Amino acid sequence: RRAEERAAAAAPVLDATGRHVLVAANVGSRPEAEAAVANGADGVGLLRTELLFLDRAELPTEDEQTAQLVDLLSVVGDRPVVVRTLDVGADKLLPALHLDPIKNGPLGQRGLRFGLAHLDILRTQIRAILRAAAGRKHLSVLAPMVTFAWEARTFRRLIADVSSELEDEGVAYGRPHEIGVMVEVPAAALAADEICAEVDFLSVGSNDLTQYVMAAERTNEAVASLYQPDHTALWRLYELLVASARAAGRRVAVCGEIAGDPAAAVRLVELGIDELSMAPASIPAVKAALRAALGTG
Ligand code: PEP
Ligand code: MG
C-alpha cells in the first residue's frame, strides 16, 4: 500500500493543456536526496551546496566537493537537478569562512555577491559542479541572491570560462543543461525582464524574497508576525514576474517554503509558475492538491 502511494506520488502532474508541472525537491544532503526519491520528486529543484561546507574548520577542496556532489547525485539518478552555488551570509554564516554578521548580513555581501568578491572560492566550486556534471544530461546551475543583470551575465561568463579551462586541461566535465539565477531581491523581481535576457530560467526564493519585501528578517523572532509569505505584495510581485518571464520565453520555478504549501502551490501554478521545489516530505500532498485542482486525476 505504501508502495502504491509512492508510485502515485511519483507520477508526473499535468495541467489541462498537457503542460508538465515539475514538482521537485530541495535537498542539501544524501539523506534528503533519498527522501526526495522516496516521496516521488520529479527532480531536485534546489541543491543547497552550503550544507556540504558546514561543520568544517576549512573549506573543502575541489576534489572533496566533486566527490560529495557525485555521491549525492548518484541517489537522484537521471532526474533533472539544479545545483545552487554557495549561498553564504545572512542566515548561513559558515564557520570555515569567519563571516561578519553585519558585512555579510541579510543586506550585505551574501550569495553571489560573496562569490564574485571571492572568485577563488566560486571558481573552485564551479569546477567541482561541472566535474560532477560529467555524463549528466540535466544538471543546471543556479546563482543565489542576484540583484543586477550584470551579475547574471558575469556568472554565465564564469561558467563558460571554467568549462574551457577544464576542456584545456582534459578533465572530464559536463556543460550545464541550463543556467539560472534566483529571484530573492525585490529589484530582481521588478526588473526581471533585464535579468531574463541573461539566463535560461529563474527560480524564486520566496523565503528571502518575503524577508526583503516585508522588511522583516526571516530568523528574527521579534518580527516573525511581519514575515508574511502570503501577503498581497508578494502575490502581485509573482504575477509581474511571471508576465516578464513569459514575455521573454523563460521558465520560472519557485523553490522557497511557499511552494510546499498545497493551497499556495495551486495558486502559483495557476499563475503560470512552471516548477515547484520543496522539502521532500511536502511532495505527495502538493502533487495531490495540484491533481485535484487541475482536474488531471
Ligand atoms: C529562499 O530564499 O527561498 C531559498 C529557497 O533559499 P534559502 O532558503 O536557502 O535561502
Ligand atoms: Mg534564499
* Share of helix, binned: 40-55%
Number of strand segments: 9
Uncertain spans: none
List SSEs in N-to-C order: HEEHEHEHHEHEHHEHHEHEH
User: Structural class given helices, strands, pairing?
Assistant: alpha/beta
Largest sheet: 8 strands, parallel, barrel
The largest beta-sheet arranges its strands as 2-3-4-5-6-7-8-9
- Mean pLDDT reading: 95
How many H/I helical runs?
12
Distance between the termini: 19 Å
Bound molecules: phosphoenolpyruvate, magnesium ion
Subunit structure: Homodimer. The dihydroxyacetone kinase complex is composed of a homodimer of DhaM, a homodimer of DhaK and the subunit DhaL.
Family: Belongs to the PEP-utilizing enzyme family.
Protein name: Phosphocarrier protein HPr
Subcellular location: Cytoplasm
What does this structure look like?
With 297 residues, the protein is of the alpha/beta class. It contains 12 helices and 9 strands. Strand 5 (139-143), helix 6 (149-169) and strand 6 form a beta-alpha-beta unit. Helix 1 packs across helix 12 and helix 5 (119-132) packs across helix 6 (149-169). The two termini are 19 Å apart. The model has no long low-confidence stretch (mean pLDDT 95). It binds phosphoenolpyruvate (PEP) and magnesium ion. Residues 144, 184, 205, 207-208 line the site of magnesium ion.
Helices and strands in order:
Blueprint: H1 2-10, E1 13-14, E2 20-27, H2 30-38, E3 44-48, H3 62-76, E4 81-84, H4 112-117, H5 119-132, E5 139-143, H6 149-169, E6 179-183, H7 186-190, H8 192-196, E7 201-204, H9 206-214, H10 232-248, E8 251-254, H11 262-271, E9 275-278, H12 283-294
Parallel strand pairs: 2-3, 2-9, 3-4, 4-5, 5-6, 6-7, 7-8, 8-9
Antiparallel strand pairs: 1-2
Helix pairs in contact: 1-12, 2-3, 3-5, 5-6, 11-12
Bound molecules: phosphoenolpyruvate and magnesium ion.
